[in-house]
Amino acid sequence: MTRPVVLHVIPSLVTGGAEHMLASLVTAKRAAPYPQAVVSLMAGGVYADAIRNAGVPVHELGVGTLNWPIAVFQLAALIRKLSPAAIQSWLYYGDLITTLALVLSGHRRETKLYWGVRCSDISQRFNAQSRLMVALCVRLSRFPDAVIANSYAGRSDHRRIGYRPPAFAVIPNGIDIGAFRPNAADRARIRGELGIADNTPFFIHVARVNPMKDHATFLQVAATMPEIRFAAIGRGTEALQSPPNVLRLGLRHDMPAIYA
Q1: Res 123: pLDDT
Q2: How many CB atoms are located within 10 Å of the residue 123 CB?
Q3: pLDDT tens digits, 146-170
Q4: Percent of the chain with pLDDT over 70
Q5: What do you get for the CA distance between the two ends of the chain, in Å?
Q6: Cα–Cα distance measured from residue 193 to residue 140, given in angstroms and rounded to the nearest whole number
Q7: Crossing angle for the helix pair 68-82 and 91-105, to the nearest 10 degrees
Q8: In the predicted model, what is the mean pLDDT of the chain?
Q9: Where are the alpha helices (DSSP H) in 57-109?
Q10: 102: helix, strand or coil
Q11: pTM of the shown model
C-alpha cells in the first residue's frame, strides 16, 4: 500500500459543508498529485464513492456516535499501518479522536497534525456531548502543529474560548467559479420548475436544519415579505413550518443551477 502524504480524518461523509470541501480538496486536479487517503469515522455518506472514484482511498471505520472510544483504537491501528507524513483532521470529533489515536499509535514524532476549525461562535448551539468535545479540544489545542480555520471570525471565536495552538492559520473556503457562475439556461429552467416568475426576487437559505443555521430568523424575515419568494434548501428543510412564500426543497444536489 502506498504511504499517504496526507491522511484526512472526518466524522462522516454525509452531505454537509465540511464534507463537501474535503471531497473537493482531495479530488481536485493537480499538476503533481501526491498520495492521500481519507478516514470517515462513520460508514456511508454521499461523498465516499465520489472520493473513491477519483482514486483516493476511503477507510470507513463504521463507528456510531456512542462508540467513539472504539474509533480511537481503530484509527491508531490505521495510522501505524499507513504511517502518513501529515494528518489533517476535520471538525471537533475528528480533531479530538485523531489526537488521541495519533498518541496511541506511537507515530506522533514523525507525523504532523493539523486540526480543522470550520465554524465561528458555537455558544448555545450544541448538545452536552458536543460541548464536552469542544471543551476537551480547548484543553488539547496546544498539541497539534497548527489549527486551520476557514474564517477569521472562526479563529477569533476559538481564541476567545481558549484555543492556543502553536500556529493558527486561516484558509478561506474556495469557490469553484467554473461551476458557480451566471447561467441563463439554468436560471430559466429552475425558475420554471419552481413556478417563480422571471422578475420575482428569489432568496435561498442553504443549510441542514440545525439551531446554528438559524432557520427561525430566516422564516420570520420571509413572513414579513410576502411579495418575495424564498426557498429553504438542505437536509430536513422539507419538514419546516413555513409561510406560503417559502419553498421547502429538502436536500438538493444541483446547487450550481439553483444559485444561477
Answers
A1: 62
A2: 11
A3: 999 999 999 999 999 999 999 999 9
A4: 96
A5: 43
A6: 50
A7: 60
A8: 92
A9: 68-82, 91-105
A10: helix
A11: 0.86
For the chain, the maximum distance between any two Cα atoms, rounded to a whole number of angstroms, is 62
Please write the tens of the pLDDT for every residue from 83-122.
999 999 999 999 999 999 999 999 999 999 999 999 887 6
For the chain, how big is the Rg over CA atoms in Å? 20
Closest CA to 158 of 99, 91, 215, 100: 91
CA distance linking residue 66 with residue 84, whole number of Å: 27
Helix H or strand E encompassing 42: none
DSSP state letter for 239: G
The one-letter amino acid at 77: A
Grid cell, residue 91, equals 471538525
Whether residue 83 contacts residue 90, with contact meaning beta carbons closer than 8 Å, is answered with no
Grid coordinates standing for 125? 448551539
Q: What is the amino acid identity at position 232? A: A
Among 97, 16, 87, 18, smallest CA distance to 61 is for 97
* pLDDT at residue 126, as a whole number: 67
The CB density around residue 9, as the number of other CB atoms within 10 Å, is: 32
C-alpha 212/C-alpha 135 separation (Å) is: 18
Q: For residue 246, list its beta bridge partners.
A: 230
Cell numbers for 237, please give them: 428543510
Which residue reads 495510522 in cell numbers? Answer: 79
Those residues with Cβ within 8 angstroms of residue 214's Cβ, 6 or more apart along the chain or in another chain:
none
The number of beta carbons lying within 10 Å of the beta carbon of residue 99 is 23
Sole residue written with cell 489515536: 101
Do residues 157 and 125 lie in contact, with contact meaning Cβ atoms separated by under 8 Å? Answer: no
Interval 175-193 mean pLDDT: 94
Sheet arrangement for strand 146-149: 58-60, 36-40, 6-10, 86-89, 112-117, 146-149, 168-170
